[in-house]
Amino acid sequence: MRVRTTMLALSAVLAAVLCGCQSETDPGPGTTPSESPTTVEPPADEPRDAPPDTPSTTSAVSPPDAGCFWPRFHGPRGDNISDATGLLTEWPEGGPPLVWTATGIGEGYAGVTIAEGLIYTSGNIDEKSVVTALTLDGQTEWQTDNGPAWTDSYPGTRSTPTIDGDRVYDESPLGQVTCYNAKTGEKLWSRNILDEFGSKNIQWALAESVLIDGPRVICSPGGPNTAVVALDKITGETVWQSPTAQGDLAGYCSPTLAEYGGLRMIFVMTARGIIGVNADTGELLFRFPHETKYDINVEKPIFRDGMLFFTSGYGAGSVMLKLTVDGGKVSVEEAWRNDDLDNHHGGVLLLDGYLYGSDMRTKWVCLDWKTGETVYEERGVGKGSLTAAEGRLYVLSEKHRVGLVPATPEKHEVVSRFELPEGGEGNSWAHPVVCGGRLYVRHGDFLYAYDVRVK
């Protein structure tokens, strides 16, 4: 059945939150919504900090690509790199054309996922955590709740819904993992992983985007009884649960799946370390301690060729581990450490042998993957999140600035930039997405779609 909900009051306060956050082998309170998307223009008498330009809206845009496929947080491969081609190498003055603006998705920091002509995200609406499906022209297809909303410190959703065939999976900040019919929004099953696995919530609430591994849904309740659990994706029943990782609560991190040395492994950051779990049995393979201020470990680990990278803010920096697999056992040793790249929650990606991301403060940093050497530190648009497509970084500062940067270790040159329109509350912390020739940027209750293709 098609579900449509009525939206009530917009949340008046929205500030900050921690969002759960690469080479791998895993497949793996708004106003009443309008029936058609609206375009939001910034007030002419209220200029923002430099650069003052705002994106233009024009009818001269390319049609949406119905084949766009971005089924989970950080894309089909989990590497945060888009396969889109034919994209602009520079943007017009004021930014690329703003095709549409959708409102009524609720307050939150979730990004978007896209498949089969629908866009999915989540947000707080009337004290409910709500999943929304939109058409490629920004119209609401359905909305269904996922239990109570997180209304405490920095209210709003964090997790990005995960698409798998004809189903969508969402984890609320309160631990409600729910499976929906992707076309209609019908709830097929739902479980609260904090309650059922005897854990408790973390200071700013759960933020992971769940991972689909074949027939299983992977999620991380943490706590004294387990660290990571696998649920049957059709029924929601428990397939396995790992041992506890020394009692660590969950981090704000989304899991990474990889295979190395004949062993399939899941990597995830807990509140006080990084762990590896056997993807088939749930056996805890290792725990490497990594403590930060406020127990904030957010970033999705990056694995390639036996090397495992992770990073945290608050001065904790970046660490590379070397894994040795012997049969079904794993040992780890530190390969290098770098304090320049201490990424908060904007994501880091690996492209052509270099790591790109922003530090905790203001700069964008590039590291050599093999050595950990700092290649550059540049201010750019300021601290934020990113994605990549066709050899370029699409960067979004937490202060609403968007930039286009060639992905090269030589320098961090912002060749084009613009400001998001007025309207969204708080920091712009949702990670941007480039798919099917469109750039999607979420800010609070607003989702913006820009045409970034060459005409």
Q: How is this structure best described in words?
A:
By secondary structure, the protein is mostly beta strands. It has a single domain, classed as Methylamine Dehydrogenase, Chain H (7 Propeller), CATH 2.130.10. It is built from 1 helix and 33 strands. It has one helix at residues 193-196; strands spanning 81-82, 98-103, 113-115, 118-125, 128-135, 140-148, 162-164, 167-171, 176-181, 187-192, 211-213, 216-219, 229-232, 238-241, 256-260, 263-270, 273-278, 284-289, 302-304, 307-312, 317-326, 329-338, 349-351, 354-358, 364-368, 374-378, 384-389, 392-397, 401-406, 416-419, 433-435, 438-443, 446-451.
Key structural traits:
single chain, 455 residues, mainly beta, Methylamine Dehydrogenase, Chain H, five-stranded mixed sheet, four-stranded antiparallel sheet, disordered N terminus
**How large is the radius of gyration?**
20 Å
State the helicity in percent bands.
under 10%
Give the CA-based shape: globular
Given the helix and strand composition, which structural class is it?
Answer: mainly beta
Give me the CATH architecture, please.
Answer: 7 Propeller
By CATH, the superfamily comes out as: YVTN repeat-like/Quinoprotein amine dehydrogenase
Beta-strand share of residues: 35-45%
As for the number of domains, it is: 1
Q: Mean of residue pLDDT?
A: 89
Tell how many strands the DSSP assignment holds.
Answer: 33
